[in-house]
Specification:
The complex is a heterodimer of chains A (291) and B (275).
Chain A: E1 2-3, H1 6-35, H2 46-53, H3 62-65, H4 71-98, H5 103-115, H6 118-128, H7 135-142, H8 154-182, H9 186-194, H10 199-210, H11 212-228, H12 231-236, H13 248-258, H14 262-279, H15 281-288
Helix pairs in contact in A: 1-14, 2-14, 4-5, 4-8, 4-11, 5-8, 6-8, 8-11, 11-14, 13-14
Chain B: H1 2-32, H2 35-38, H3 53-59, H4 66-97, E1 98-99, H5 103-115, H6 119-131, H7 138-161, H8 167-174, H9 179-190, H10 192-208, H11 211-216, H12 225-231, H13 240-260, H14 262-273
Helix pairs in contact in B: 1-13, 3-13, 4-7, 4-10, 4-12, 5-7, 7-10, 8-9, 10-13, 10-14, 12-13, 13-14
The chains are: A mainly alpha (291), B mainly alpha (275).
Chain lengths: 291, 275
């Protein structure tokens, strides 16, 4: 490790720092600042009270009436369904497809969900759950069930988007788990097989524990993705009908660029950021190891 | 017994695979078959005709032509890939080789910004660009993408440089090469695989971006490809042929990048997420 001269700092580091500070750090601080200002420019918690009390954010009546339940709960429901499903599906697919004929082709196709722009992903989700051309209804029709356009009804809109986003994101955990599986030495499996362990036992006692570091990373990245979800909702339902599939990121956009209420928009942005920062705490550990 | 189990596993795997395959086939069929054949579902193959009308209709759409969107997206995505990679590679190298004040603090900040949602900067950035006259301008959007890409590429490249042994550079230094020359002549050529990964991912992310474009670009003829997709939806009913063709056109570019740079892409994805 060399000691730096000023000229080195100016050439190597300064351009990056200037841009990050100007377009990322400073705007973030200003958003925090704006969230605490009332319309007269005085410090207040008014925006926070308004946003947290708003039905957009949390709507307790939804429990008896049905959706919408508010963006905060919608994002939480998203996490509660999407996180366990994508992680377990990704792991299972990574394990199975390793031993299957054409497994690599299937992996590539599943991974396409992650490669396409999420705005196109939203169109795909909307397509799958459509009343006439949708794949879901085509499948149900085999059993004689006549479906509907699932994204157009308050009670099914959010769930359609969530299951659609599972379809889009599973490729991510699958690819990371596939890479993780490569690092497990073959001897472990051979030794276990000689001891007479069943495949299921090997999976639970060897594969899952050894993949724990991958699981941590996949969990964090997936959490961040679920919290930031925007494009899919924007193009598929625009948060509707009647806010039934609205999420925090879209609520922020609506406040800021439709209602031009920067105070409330900033509050939603701060809530969103606090959640993503909490989710990514384990990542900052690698900064601690820095020399 | 063993053979039977192998067959069953293959069967299960391909059944699960169908869940991913069928929607892609569906979108493709909807895009390339005429409307009257789709009324009873695209899975009806009694009479099959192919047409490219939907592709040409979305390509030359009267209010939101995709042709223009694709060109606009390239105009934004290419510089937004090149600039941050140059700047962040240098910063990443600096982090990996030098001691300097506030190093830990700066690195922590960079890691924290990795988690930031774009909504956190949206309003101030919109106001800043407006006051600089850079709203509805690609220069403004390229600046944003560059700044937004810097933290992760810096982090990614630093993690790569740490794996290159310092002894190579020391040998060159004894021969009298300057630090900057060592970086250009020795380090950069060694970093080509990592640079390839960073470029593939950054390009696809900029191409796929919707939010930053949405808040900064609004003139109809300047809209990027991703911004034109929602405009194809139609107001009262969804024209699925048109929308499917548009979706395929917009996703083809990142998919091509993925196919041609698959090795780098997947490695980058793993490196981006891990460590």
């Amino acid at each position: 490790m060399k000691k730096s001269k000023l000229s080195h700092f100016l050439i190597f580091m300064a351009p990056a720092l200037v841009l990050i500070v100007t377009f990322v750090i400073y705007p973030s601080l200003r958003t925090i600042f704006t969230s605490f200002l009332d319309e007269n420019g005085k410090f207040s918690l008014k925006n926070y009270v308004e946003v947290l009390k708003s039905r957009d954010t949390f709507d307790p009546e939804g429990f008896s009436r049905g959706f919408p339940l508010g963006t905060l709960l919608h994002n939480l429901i998203w996490i509660a369904i999407h996180l366990p499903l994508t992680i377990s599906l990704g792991l299972i697919l990574a394990v199975i497809l390793r031993k299957v004929k054409g497994g690599n082709i299937l992996k590539s196709i599943i991974f396409l969900g992650m490669v396409m722009p999420m705005i196109v992903g939203g169109v795909m989700v909307r397509f799958m759950f459509d009343g006439s051309v949708g794949v879901v209804n085509g499948f149900l029709r085999i059993f004689g069930i006549e479906g509907k356009t699932w994204t157009a009804y308050p009670d099914t809109a959010l769930f359609s988007l969530i299951f659609g986003s599972v379809w889009l994101w599973t490729g991510f955990s699958m690819v990371l788990y596939s890479a993780g599986l490569e690092t497990i030495p073959k001897d472990f499996y051979e030794a276990a097989a000689i001891d007479g362990a069943t495949p299921l036992k090997i999976f639970f006692k060897i594969t899952i524990p050894l993949l724990k570091p991958v699981t941590v990373v996949v969990t964090i990245m997936t959490l961040l993705w679920e919290l930031k979800i925007f494009d899919i909702v924007y193009v598929a339902t625009m948060g509707g009908p009647g806010g039934a599939s609205n999420v925090l990121a879209l609520q922020m956009y609506t406040y800021a660029f439709r209602e031009l209420n920067y105070g409330k928009a900033s509050v939603v942005a701060v809530i969103l950021t606090v959640s993503t920062l909490l989710a990514s705490i384990p990542l900052t550990k690698s900064a601690g190891e820095l020399r | 017994m063993k053979r039977k189990r192998y067959l069953i596993m293959n069967l299960i795997a391909w059944l699960i695979g169908l869940v991913w395959l069928v929607p892609f086939i569906g979108v493709l069929m909807t895009a390339i078959r005429p409307l009257d054949e789709l009324l009873h579902g695209w899975w009806n193959f009694e009479s099959v005709h192919f047409t490219f009308r939907n592709f040409s209709a979305s390509w030359n759409h009267p209010t939101a032509p995709l042709s223009k969107g694709i060109i606009n997206s390239l105009k934004v995505a290419v510089p937004s890939t090149v600039f941050p990679i140059i700047i962040a590679t240098m910063a990443g190298y600096y982090f990996s080789r030098y001691r300097f004040p506030l190093k830990k603090f700066l690195f922590t900040i960079i890691i924290l910004t990795l988690a930031l949602p774009q909504q956190m900067i949206a309003v101030p950035v919109f106001q800043m660009l407006s006051s600089m006259g850079l709203i509805d301008s690609y220069i403004g959007l390229i600046l944003l993408h560059t700044a937004w890409g810097l933290p992760w590429i810096t982090f990614f490249m630093r993690n790569f440089f740490v794996t290159i042994p310092v002894s190579i550079e020391e040998a060159a230094r004894i021969d009298g090469a300057s630090d900057f020359k060592i970086f250009l002549k020795i380090i950069l050529p060694l970093s080509l695989p990592a640079l390839g990964s960073a470029a593939a991912l950054q390009f696809n992310w900029v191409w796929s971006d919707f939010f930053l474009a949405l808040i900064t670009i609004y003139s109809p003829d300047k809209l990027l490809a991703t911004q034109r997709v929602p405009l194809m939806r139609g107001v009262y009913h969804v024209d699925w042929g048109l929308l499917s063709a548009a979706a395929i056109t917009v996703m083809i570019v990142p998919i091509l990048v993925y196919i041609f740079l698959q090795k780098y892409y997947v490695r980058g994805m793993i490196g981006w997420a891990m460590k």
